[in-house]
Amino acid sequence: MEILFKSKGLAKAFSSQKALCRKYGAENGKVIMNRMAVLVAAPNLAKVSNLPPEKRHELEGDRKGTFAVWLKYPFRLVFEPYHNPLPKMPNGGLDLDRISSVMILSVEDYH
Fold first, then answer.
1. Quick one: pLDDT at residue 50?
2. What is the mean pLDDT of residues 4-12?
3. Could you tell me if 21 and 30 are in contact, meaning their C-beta atoms sit under 8 angstroms apart?
4. Mind listing the pLDDT tens digit for each residue in 28-81?
5. Strand 76-81 with 101-108, pairing
6. What CA–CA distance (Å, rounded) separates 28 from 87?
7. CATH of the domain at 66
8. What's the CA angle centered on 11, arms 8 and 14, to 5 degrees?
9. Domain total for the chain?
10. Rg (the chain; Cα; Å)
């Protein structure tokens, strides 16, 4: 899957495990590297597991259309499909099998 970043600062933080650990702590840095490896290796969003440890899930409410994967509790890696137009199914939902590019938005505790 193609991975983009919302900002240059975020891209810099994700440029190496050392940079990730410096910004998000040693444990989260390792977990983020693992989650990024899963995202990069997946041909599409449907192939990213919705079961632990990744636990890919769509967010709700004002964040509908964005997704997250678990990191070290309570943090999440938040991203959105990067397609224009968004691939949709006949029922109006997102077609995860056709989402092959995502933009990383943040690492946060949104709980």
1. 95
2. 97
3. yes
4. 999 999 999 999 999 999 999 999 999 999 999 999 999 999 999 999 999 999
5. antiparallel
6. 31
7. 3.30.2310.20
8. 155
9. 1
10. 14
Higher pLDDT pick, 104 / 110? 104
DSSP string of the chain, one letter each residue: -EEEESSHHHHHHTS-HHHHHHHH-HHHHHHHHHHHHHHHH-SSGGGS-SSTTT--EE--GGGTT-EEEE-STT-EEEEEE--SSPPB-TTSSB-GGG--EEEEEEEE---
pLDDT of 111 = 81
Q: Find the domain containing 67 and state its range.
A: 2-108
Amino acid identity, position 45: L
Q: How far is CA 5 from CA 9, 10, 51, 61, 79, in A?
A: 9, 6, 24, 23, 9
Task: List CB contacts of 23: < 8 A, sequence separation 6 or more.
Answer: 13, 29
Q: What is the pLDDT of residue 55?
A: 96
